[in-house]
Amino acid sequence: MKTSFNRAFIPAKAIQYIKEAFACGKMAGDHGFTKKCNKWIEKRVKRKKALLTTSCTHALEIAALLINVKPGDEIIMPSYTFSSTANAFILRGARIVFVDIRPDTMNIDEKLIEQAITSRTKAIVPVHYAGVGCEMDDIISLKNKYGLFVIEDAAQGFMSKFNMKMLGTLGDIGCYSFHETKNYQCGEGGAIVLDNSSLIKAAEIIREKGTNRSQFFRGEVDKYSWQSVGSSYLPSDINAALLYSQLETADQINENRLQRWNFYYRNFENLEKKGYIELPKIPAKCKHNAHMFYIKAKNLHERTKLIKYLKKKGIDAFFHYVPLHSSVAGVKYGKFCGQDRFTTKESERIIRLPMYYDIPLVKMEHVYKTVRKYFIDKKR
Q1: Is residue 334 a contact partner of residue 86, using CB atoms and an 8 Å limit?
Q2: How confident is the model at residue 380 (pLDDT cuts 50, 70, 90)?
Q3: Looking at the 3D structure of the chain, how many domains does it have?
Q4: Domain span at 43
Q5: Which CATH number goes with the domain that contains 279?
Q6: Which residues of 176-215 are buried (b: 16+ CB within 10 A; e: fewer)?
Q7: pLDDT tens per residue across span 240-278
Q8: What's the rounded Cα separation, in Å, for the pair 175 and 58?
Q9: What's the predicted TM-score (pTM) here?
Q10: Is residue 216 located within the same domain as residue 266?
Q11: Which of 1, 129, 361, 380 is the most buried (most CB within 10 A)?
């Protein structure tokens, strides 16, 4: 039984909306569907401004410009994340300071952040892995104590919550992804969300190639001109049309994925009890979005063998990030603060299993039974 790792969900209205975007003859950024998406996100996450971007990578780049990152500044983040988290700040000349993760959530260990703070620290960038929130109370406390910025990399966290607040809204700036691998998708896309009026004004200018074009279209100025450093961060309205069809069904998508995540969890619990694997841990303060389902093998050797076994059975299963601090660029542009107790060890155990909207339960059961058979055969 072939079981793909991911499949894009195309809602019934998607094609209709895309045709409407073509028909109106305005396919560039910031037209009808882009504005609808922005308004929908603002209302749902309760922030004054949401701006669609071409990716979460670009949302992070805007964030780096907004807080005026300069050469010599230090940015604290986990090493267990995607390269975009670091690149956004390295492009401005910053030095990355990596902090170890918690083995339960794979998120940055909030208890280790303070020892990484120096006079050069500009911001903390928590990454909400698998849509499970970092311990934001402690992180915000450090932000206030040391006068730092907090930029949330919530690429995987749209619709997730920490203490009943949406991820991406607890810090100064939140960044989301709508890549085809995410819960809500438009091929390539993202968004930045803000609540500070001065940051909102600056973000609009940065996103519009450094011009005040947005103010011009609102009739606030009689012409627009180059105001500051910026770039072209606007997605096509065609992408926005596809995304809007997904946002309209966001609760349905969320519930569908959570049901399937729970189905996996219930089935795999017995393998965890027998000591074969470990399952994801969801802290009480967190309400996750079922972005991914992973299991942890005992070690790298076991993971390699199990992934190979699953592939032979037609099941797409994958590892995830190689810690940034161990990469060529990580060594060049960053440093690890303290001891790497868990980042490398835990990253070498993760196996991500097929997970997407409406994945047939029969396929999920096949995945579970195949993993179970691997361990039964191994024990013989």
Answers
A1: yes
A2: low
A3: 2
A4: 14-247
A5: 3.90.1150.10
A6: bbbbeebbbbbebbbbbbbbeeebbebbbbbbbbbbbbbb
A7: 999 999 999 999 999 999 999 999 999 999 999 999 999
A8: 9
A9: 0.96
A10: no
A11: 129
